[in-house]
Design a protein that fits this description.
Blueprint lengths: L1 H21 L17 E6 L27 E10 L5 H9 L2 E8 L1 E10 L2 E3 L3 H4 L9 E3 L6 E11 L7 E10 L2 E2 L2 E4 L9 E6 L2 E6 L5 E7 L4 E2 L6 E4 L2 E8 L2 E7 L5 E2 L4 H18 L11 H8 L1 E11 L25 H23 L1
Antiparallel strand pairs: 1-2, 2-7, 3-6, 3-8, 4-5, 4-7, 8-19, 9-10, 10-11, 11-12, 12-13, 13-14, 13-15, 15-16, 16-17, 17-18
Length: 364
């Protein structure tokens, strides 16, 4: 038993040590949370019944979120304000990346809607267009949209909401994206791309814009895992270098054309190579030893979002109960009961009868 316990303990320790070594460097990256400045987005839950007694909009904002069940109608409005005057970085981002509006729904099915510009209706209804901006696909704004308030009104129904209710999330943001196999990467939110990532069969290459630096990662295409049977190649001034490492030794670069190894003994060239090499991994957010995977999904997830702002509303889940009220039974008053309508009728009939008898006696 002691031997078995020792074996299990040793195996557990081995796995604990191996796990960090096998982890992908991407796991170390903290997702950015930079908001969009200057440009604002608001979402308002609206009443579903018009109020004709007020001026302006017929549908007032909800004061209290009502509970919903399957099929309950919901109504909301998203307003995006893009000022004429923006910061230099936002002007650059609006020109190079464009601002994307996205709408996410949880347990809600959209049925209709309408676009607005500065409070006035624009275009046909969403139902007739068979498209819901932000939800069917991202809606993009560029510099021509500055100086306006862009509105989107939506009607929908709760679709089998769970205990958390039905909710809507609306967001605006600037994003890096893949276009034609190239990922234009602005990594400091200034509207200028610092890197270009290209993906060809089995290779991801990152180039530093405006320089001669580039680094190429060979991958197993089916898994995205770095192909350890091939070398990671670093390029500088039209020369290609294989990166070599040794325990307790600094990184060195082997010229693939001459097979000469560049080390710190050649300080000028070595420092030029090392500074470019470090710039790539500083941007990636992990070290050379942690580069175990490279996929388009990784770049989308960790470097796709430059800045974004999100707002939302939630309708709580609720049950609807039907109360059946039986009509009151008419019963004659009991001793000590308060007089009812029936009692008054009976008293009136008795008085009429008494009056009739009195009249007969008088005439007689």
């Amino acid at each position: 038993m002691k031997k078995l316990f020792s074996l299990v303990l040793a195996l557990a320790l081995a796995l604990a040590i191996a796990a960090p070594a096998l982890a992908s460097g991407w796991d170390q990256i903290v997702l950015p949370s930079t908001p969009v400045y200057d440009i604002t987005i608001q979402i308002t839950a609206l009443e579903t019944t018009p109020n004709t007694s007020v001026l302006g909009s017929l549908y007032e904002p909800l004061k209290v979120m009502y509970p919903v069940i399957n099929g309950t109608e919901v109504h909301f409005y998203v307003a995006i304000t893009i000022p004429t005057s923006l910061s230099a970085s936002n002007n650059a981002l609006l020109a190079s990346k464009r601002l994307e509006y996205r709408l996410d729904l949880d347990d809600i099915t959209l049925e209709n809607g309408q676009a607005y510009l500065d409070g006035g209706k624009v275009g046909d209804t969403f139902k007739n267009l068979n498209s819901f901006p932000g939800y069917t696909s991202a809606y993009a704004f560029d510099a021509s949209h500055k100086g306006h308030v862009h509105g989107f009104e939506y009607w929908g129904k709760a679709n089998k909401p769970g205990a958390s209710g039905a909710s809507v999330s609306a967001s605006i943001g600037f994003y890096n994206s893949w276009v034609g196999g190239v990922f234009a990467w602005d990594n400091d939110a200034d509207g200028v791309d610092e890197f270009l990532v290209t993906h060809t069969d089995g290779v991801y290459t990152i180039s530093a814009v405006g320089t001669s630096y580039a680094i190429s990662f060979p991958v197993v295409e089916a898994t995205g895992k770095i192909d350890v049977t091939r070398e990671i190649v670093f390029s500088y001034n039209s020369a290609n270098y294989a990166i070599t490492t040794a325990v307790n030794q600094p990184i060195s670069f082997r010229n693939l054309a001459t097979n000469a190894v560049v080390t710190s003994s050649e300080p000028t060239l070595y420092q030029a190579l090392l500074s470019g090499f470090n710039a790539f991994f500083s941007a990636l957010g992990f070290g050379y030893a942690d580069a175990k995977y490279m996929t388009t999904a990784h770049f989308d997830k960790y470097f796709g979002r430059i800045a974004s702002t999100s707002v939302g509303v939630t309708w709580p889940y609720g049950t609807v109960t039907t109360v059946v009220v039986a009509p009151p039974a008419v019963q004659p008053p009991q001793t000590g009961d308060a007089t009812t309508v029936v009692g008054f009728v009976m008293i009136a009939l008795a008085l009429v009868a008494a009056a009739a008898v009195t009249v007969r006696k008088v005439r007689a």
